Amino acid sequence: SSSSTPHRLPPHLRRRSARLLQGKMASHIVGYPRMGPKRELKFALESFWDGKSSAEDLEKVAADLRASIWKQMSEAGIKYIPSNTFSYYDQVLDTTAMLGAVPDRYSWTGGEIGHSTYFSIARGNATVPAMEMTKWFDTNYHFIVPELSPATKFSYASHKAVSEYKEAKALGVDTVPVLVGPVSYLLLSKAAKGVEKSFSLLSLLDSILPIYKEVVTELKAAGASWIQFDEPTLVKDLAAHELAAFSSAYAALESALSGLNVLIETYFADVPAESYKTLTSLSGVTAYGFDLVRGTKTLELIKSAGIPSGKYLFAGVVDGRNIWADDLAASLSTLQSLEAVVGKDKLVVSTSCSLMHTAVDLVNETKLDSEIKSWLAFAAQKVVEVNALGKALAGLKDEAYFAANAAAQASRRSSPRVNNEEVQKAGGCFEGL
C-alpha cells in the first residue's frame, strides 16, 4: 500500500512522512523486565549473595543490562523510554531506600543506602529477619512491604532514579524517570509492629513529599523533560480521604514539577469513576496512563467523561501480562476511536502495564516451531508492536507487518493446537494463560 512506501506519495505528504520518520512516534513502554534475556541478573545476584563475586561485578552486569534495554527501545523507535524501572529486588523497596525508611533493626546509620542494608531488608541477615513480602496486586510478582510508624525518620538516601537517568543520557538516550507515586507508596505500606491502631499511613504524606521534591529538582537539573509517577492504587476502590490525598500530594508537588511533563500511570484494572475524576483534575499533571486491556470500563469512561483539554492520553493497548502477540488490527481500531476524544497529537500508544510480567525475548526460544512462534510476543517483541501501532497512527502503517500479524491471529484462532501440551508448555510459566 502507498502508506508504507513514502517515495510514491505526493510531495507535501512525502515531506510530512519524512518529518515523522525523523522524530520518534508517539510510543511508550511502562516498564521492562530486569532479569535479562538469559537471566543474567539472577545469576549475578546469586553469585554476589554467595560471596563468589564483588559488588562491582554485580553493578557491571546491572549497568550492561540497563544499557542494552535502553538501546533496544531507542532503536525500536520508542519515544518515551522508561528509566529507574530496573531493580535489584523490587521498585517499592527501591522507593523505601530513596526515602530512607529503614526500620531500626537494620542498624542503618544514615547516608546513601548500600547493598548490605538493601539486601538485609529484602532477605534478612544472620541477626535480623527480612521485611514482609506480599503480592503486587493480582500478579505473580512480589514486593517488600514498607513498615512505617509516626517515628519513621525519612531522608533522601538513594539517588538511584537520578543516577540511572544520567546513565541513560550519557548513552545518548533521553528517558522518562519512573517513581512509585507518593500516595500509592503509603497506601501499599503497613503500620510497623506496636503502632496504635488509629495511626493513618497517609498522615506521613507531608514527611515524604520534601524528598520527592528533591528527587524531582535533581531530575530537572539533569535535563529530564518528562517524569512518570506510578499510582496503581487508583484502580482500587478508595475512600474519599484517600482520593483527597492524591489531590493534596500533587498540589504540594506542583511548583517542583513546574516545567516538566508529568505522567500519572495506572494499571491492572479499571479506574473507578470517582478516581478518574480525581486523577484527571490533579494539579500540574500533563498525561494519564491507563491499562485498556484489563480496563475495558475505563475505555468507556474516557469516551464518556473525556480527557481535559491539552492533556495526553497514554493508551495501554498492548498487553504487558501475557505472552501472546497483540491483535494489532483490534488495537489500532481502539486507538483510532480514542483519537476523536483526545486529539491526534495527544494520543500515545503504550503497554497495559510494565512488561516485567512477561518473558524477555522470543529470540531465545529456539525449540518452538514457526507456527507457535508466530502467535507469541515476549517483552522485546511487544516493544516492536507498540512502535508499529504508533507508526500506523501517524499514517505510516507497515502493511506487511500488520498482514503477518493478522495471519498469525487467524491461525491461532483456528488451530486445534491451541489447547495442546506444546502450546501450554510454551506459555505455562507466564501470566494470562
From TrEMBL:
Identify the pathway: Amino-acid biosynthesis; L-methionine biosynthesis via de novo pathway; L-methionine from L-homocysteine (MetE route): step 1/1
Please give the InterPro entries that the UniProt record associates with this protein: Cbl-indep_Met_Synth_N (IPR013215), UROD/MetE-like_sf (IPR038071)
Location of region: Disordered: 413-433
Cited Gene3D superfamilies: 3.20.20.210
Q: Name one GO molecular function term.
A: 5-methyltetrahydropteroyltriglutamate-homocysteine S-methyltransferase activity
Is Coiled coil there in the keyword field?
no
Q: Which cofactor does it need?
A: Zn(2+)
Q: Output the GO biological process annotations, alphabetical, semicolon-separated.
A: methionine biosynthetic process; methylation
Which top class of enzyme applies to this chain?
transferase
Q: What is its EC number?
A: 2.1.1.14
Q: Which residues fall in a coiled-coil region?
A: none
Write down the superkingdom of origin. Eukaryota
Q: According to its UniProt record, which protein family does this protein belong to?
A: Belongs to the vitamin-B12 independent methionine synthase family.
Which function does this protein serve? Catalyzes the transfer of a methyl group from 5-methyltetrahydrofolate to homocysteine resulting in methionine formation.
What is the protein name for this chain?
Answer: 5-methyltetrahydropteroyltriglutamate--homocysteine S-methyltransferase
Q: Which organism is it from?
A: Aegilops tauschii subsp. strangulata (Goatgrass)
